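Consider today's protein:

***
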Amino acid sequence: MKLQFPRLSHVDKSRLKKLIAPLYSYIYSTRIKKSGRGHKIEWSDAILRNCNISIHGHSNILKFGKGCRLRNTEIRIEGDNCLIEIGNRCCWSGILVAEDDNSEISIGSDSTAIHATIVSSEGQPIILGDDCMISKNVDIRSSDGHSIIDPDTGKRMNPARSITIGNHVWIGAGVTILKGVEIGNGSIVGCQSLVTQIIEECSLALGIPAKVIRQPIAWKRERI
């Protein structure tokens, strides 16, 4: 006698994915620590493998888009009213930190990274568009991390500034991107470069500091 099992509807499959994803993450050693109150984690059907998540403060939000996959990733939120959002179908590994109050990291859909570090500080957001490709050992920070003081006035000289990276941007291995940078859609930043200023769309930039050496250009993930 042949056994027949009931077929799941689309709604039933969606509910099943939401139930399985946290279990899958638990099996693969993902740890979540929280302190404070009012935090919100939106999971969807994301799968996390060997990740560490810590959220401290109040009213912080962590969002995982549909179909995103994280592996060997550390996520830290240390402050109030911070946001870390990882878009649909992203494949990511590395370190994501939102520190101080009102800081934000937003990663667009279909973006990928290998051991990248992104740190949003002092309420200055770091925004990545859709389909960005972040290579190994990239470092992106919206703050210098410490204060530089004018000895004559006693005022701070190096406030944090936001970073915006457009859609379909390729960041090569070992690149450092500093505060106040904007990178336009479709651009490439060459390996080991230091980005300190605006790069227009569809540009190839490299060097220390990075300078545009060719424009316009286009690129694809596939090898043609």
Summary: Residues 10-27 form the longest helix (18 residues). Residues 143 and 160 are 4 Å apart (CA to CA). The first strand starts at residue 31 and ends at 37. The mean pLDDT is 91.
